[in-house]
Design goal:
The protein is of the alpha/beta class and 487 residues long. The chain is 40% helix and 13% strand. The chain is built from 17 helices and 16 strands. The protein has a seven-stranded mixed beta sheet with strand order 1-3-2-8-10-9-16, sandwiched between helices. A three-stranded parallel beta sheet has the order 12-11-15, covered by helices on one side. A two-stranded antiparallel ribbon has the order 4-5. A hairpin with a 5-residue loop joins strand 13 and strand 14. It starts with 5 loop residues before the first helix and ends with a strand.
Amino acid sequence: MAKSSWEDIAATAQELRDASIGRIDPPVPDVPQKLAKNVTNIPKQLLTTDEILITETLPEDLLSSLASGKITSTALVNAFLRRAGLAQKLTNCITELLPEEALSRAKYLDDYYHEHGSPIGPLHGLPVSVKEHIGMKGKGLNAGFVSWWDHQGEEDAHVLRILCRAGCVFYARTTQPQTLMHLETSNNLYGVTVNPFNRDLTSGGSSGGEGALLGLRGSCLGIGSDIGGSVRSPAANCGLYGFRPTSYRVPVRGWSSTMLGEEQIVAVTGPLSTSLEGIKLFMKTIIAAKPWLFEPPCLPLPWKNAELEKSIARGKKLKVAVLWSDDVVRPHPPVLRALNEVVQELEKVTTIEVTDWSPFNHDEAWEIIASLYFPDGAQEEINAIDASGEPWRPLSKFIIQENPHVKHLSVEEVWHWTSRREEYRRKYAEHWNQTATSIGLDGEPADMVDVILAPVGPGAAPPLDSAKYWGYTSQWNLLDYPALVFP
């Protein structure tokens, strides 16, 4: 039997995606053939009043209405399915919608509420979207490679099982780039995902399908992954909240990618949401489930959101340091203007102290992390791309073929670069400690900077195939610091 061409496989992938959208009832409206650059207002022109109200409500408010019985999960799922279908037609952000499974799940939850008079869990009835490479049992799991088109999830990813037990409904799967190593989202199975605010620009990556979908309010809470900016870039480009937690905070078992088991630079699972409370709900739900009992690398630490509030109540000011530039690529004027506006507002708050942050060798940080991203010389990525004959996307070429740091490392060389990573982390911690203004009871530095306010990138969302500077996001992956993006 002749091997299918990559073009035939891509056509099949798109047919299956379109068929999943075609099963939504009532049908998803057609969008204008000639689209403006900014398409964020089109859903309001094509959806019902109730659908607009539901999909533009914040997740915490939807959950409140669900918990009080004011609205059903079925109503929410139908509304978000229709808006997600429109988002696909406007930005090319969907790999598959799940109308049958989602509506069946919603009915189960509605019946449960009717019988028990209370929600099944903290996320009862809430529709949640998922980046494609986070596995679902029996569903495709291609991670952006044409040659992986026939791969399927053997089980639901651990993070999905936790969220399911909490009561959510999975209804949409979203696009990612070839290799999962772009700050944009394009692959040869589905094409290019664009920014809903300007279709000439990127939605970000690698969780750019989530970014575009949430940006168009086709979702209010989505799950992405991040190894160099892949949650934060789409959040910034599409006006969302996005969170990169510290490694081993959120489960990763059950997703698909190359170099599984590599520990030099660890990818993380993270949420994107239309609200800050949505981020908190995601993290609280995951950590309350004690994932470390089933995925031992996960850290057995509680969610510590109350500690800062207690410190401020005791009279301690929150110290915010502003990184105006990483001294490698200076941010563009719109980014500096936004930073200035935030600083001006922060300086009005009596419980906040603002200072400047001095960058510490951020150029060295990129050298280290870029050397550790592909310790096999990117051979797994090369094999996965070449196996189908699909062409290399421009940003795959950039991060692998044109990247001088990509080399096949010996065991000794891996040790060398890992030691460089640890030494850099130590020096950066020392740099942070120097911001202390007092000494603690045990002689430790105290009253240090609490948080760094920094750009997510040097500019606003860039034109397609041009997002080539990772330094403002990958910096925090190398250091393994948690990082939150806010609009």
